[in-house]
Design goal:
59% of the residues lie in helices and 3% in strands. With 470 residues, the chain is mainly alpha-helical. The strands form 2 sheets. It has a two-stranded antiparallel sheet. α1 (30-50) packs antiparallel against α2 (58-80), α6 (205-234) packs antiparallel against α7 (250-281) and α8 runs antiparallel to α9.
């Protein structure tokens, strides 16, 4: 799984440029509160930057982001309804962690408008959820291959794997929201502002769609692992054919891996397209960072190869286990193809961000590739011997095998992101309650209002997945 480098942001006070236009100055308290929650986010990001990877608290960061988003939505809503005015146009400073840079550092960029801050905050939210999922998976180890683990312990770790899948699905929904809703709103709000053309890859629609796809494919890969957990445990003593009775359909596993490879391929095409389009727009200034980071592109490229190899592995196993004698050659052909692909990446696995220097995870992934190569070798040797001595079927060419590959299937889906209610201003619980009470007061003949049902609304828990951490 990819480890996202988290951005950091510069200090900013909403008090310096926000003016309360309401007659009773009802936002005098809320504006400093928004500044405070933003300062909390800035502090958490700076602390995370200084903390060693194994000690980073991504869960705390997720909670800090969730505290700030309603406050920022309140500021944006009040600005849109002219309940708060601006003394001057604010500029928000953030580091662009997805931009390619020859010095391997994250350049700082300042862009105007509160939508800039919301976009970067939501990006940070998605990155933190993805990193939190990755941290959970890293802590589990290769538990399904532990021969002495109890059934209860294995199921408990399966549940933790499901939690990681949920976090990735939530992250995918956030990136989709940025691409499909927030960025178009920002463009409409800014009109033809030159700031829109200077946006980094982090704030391009193509890159955010790619991030959504990548998170979803990462989630599916974890779902496959959970699906194979019981069979992997049962197969510890004598790995290889025949498959244990607890093993799910090899054809199903192959189709799940095929869909992962397909999604990673789409994500890779999108990040390349974003770089090419931005390069054409900024051809007059070649020094600008228009490419998406090489680490992300390499990760996606390697995942395409890895999951493609695993899909061919399981297609070969399906042919060998369920295809009877007439598919003996097909089993050998698919497994030989998978073996070749894994051999190509076993010594050159590059799917970990070089910025992080996460050597332990780099070794973990390399070991995963080697383990799969060993597994493919066992199946290949068994089915080849069987075909050479019993079935005598010709081994199809790679072109023939390609025509027999089925379509992939998706087992999970992204969790749509629904922005929380603003902490104050139009759309907030207090604002809805006040408006309802005014309407009740106007409609009552004696002039005495009745508390509306909307007064029972609660701020917390209004968005998808609120509070679902563990």
């Amino acid at each position: 799984m990819y480890l996202h480098e988290l951005s950091t942001t510069g200090a900013l006070s909403f008090v310096d440029f926000c003016v309360d236009h309401t007659l009773d100055k009802q936002y005098t308290i809320h504006i400093p509160e928004a500044t405070q929650t933003r300062a909390n986010l800035r502090g958490a990001l700076k602390q995370s930057k200084r903390t060693e990877h194994d000690e980073k608290d991504f869960l705390r960061l997720v909670k800090v982001v969730e505290d700030y988003i309603p406050q920022l939505c309140g500021i944006i809503g009040c600005l849109a309804h002219d309940e708060i005015g601006l003394k001057s146009e604010p500029s928000f400073s953030w580091r662009t962690t997805l931009s390619a840079n020859v010095f391997n550092t994250s350049p700082r960029l300042s862009l105007p408008g509160c939508h800039t801050d919301l976009a970067f905050t939501l990006l940070t939210y998605g990155f933190a959820l993805s990193n939190l999922a990755r941290a959970i998976v890293s802590g589990l180890g290769q538990y399904e291959h532990d021969r002495i683990i109890s059934e209860l312990e294995r199921k408990t770790k399966d549940d933790q794997l499901n939690i990681a899948v949920t976090f990735l699905c939530r992250a995918s929904g956030i990136f989709t929201y940025i691409a499909d809703t927030l960025l178009p709103e920002w463009e409409n709000n800014r009109g033809g502002s030159p700031a829109l053309t200077s946006r980094p890859p982090d704030l391009s629609r193509e890159v955010n769609i790619a991030l959504a796809k990548m998170a979803l494919a990462d989630a599916q890969s974890l779902a496959i692992r959970k699906l194979l957990s019981k069979a992997a445990y049962d197969n510890n003593v004598a790995p290889g054919p025949p498959l244990p009775r607890s093993h799910p359909s090899p054809a199903l596993i192959a189709k799940l891996h095929l869909e992962c490879a397909s999604i990673y391929t789409s994500a890779l095409a999108l990040v390349r397209t974003a770089g090419e389009r931005k390069r054409r727009r900024t051809s007059s200034s070649p020094e600008r960072n228009v490419e998406v980071s090489a680490d992300l592109r390499r990760y996606l490229s390697d995942e395409v190869t890895f999951h493609g190899a695993l899909s061919r592995k399981w297609l070969g196993v399906d042919a060998g286990e369920n295809g009877k004698s007439e598919k003996g050659g097909e089993a050998v052909g698919f497994l030989a193809w998978a073996k070749k692909d894994l051999e190509e990446i076993k010594d050159g696995w590059r799917g970990i961000s070089t910025v992080t220097g996460d050597r332990e995870m780099r070794e973990t992934i390399k070991r995963k590739v080697l383990d799969e190569l060993a597994s493919v070798g066992v199946f290949f040797k068994y089915y080849k011997k069987l075909n050479d001595s019993l079935h005598f079927q010709p081994v199809p060419s790679q072109t023939e095998l390609q025509s027999r590959i089925p379509a992939g299937i998706m087992a999970i889906s992204a969790k749509s992101f629904v922005p929380p209610l603003p902490a104050f201003g139009p759309g907030s619980v207090a604002h809805i309650r006040k408006r309802a009470e005014e309407l009740e007061f106007l409609t009552e003949p004696d002039g005495e209002g009745i508390a509306p049902a909307s007064a029972n609304l609660a701020v917390a828990g209004t968005y998808a997945g609120a509070g679902s951490y563990f």
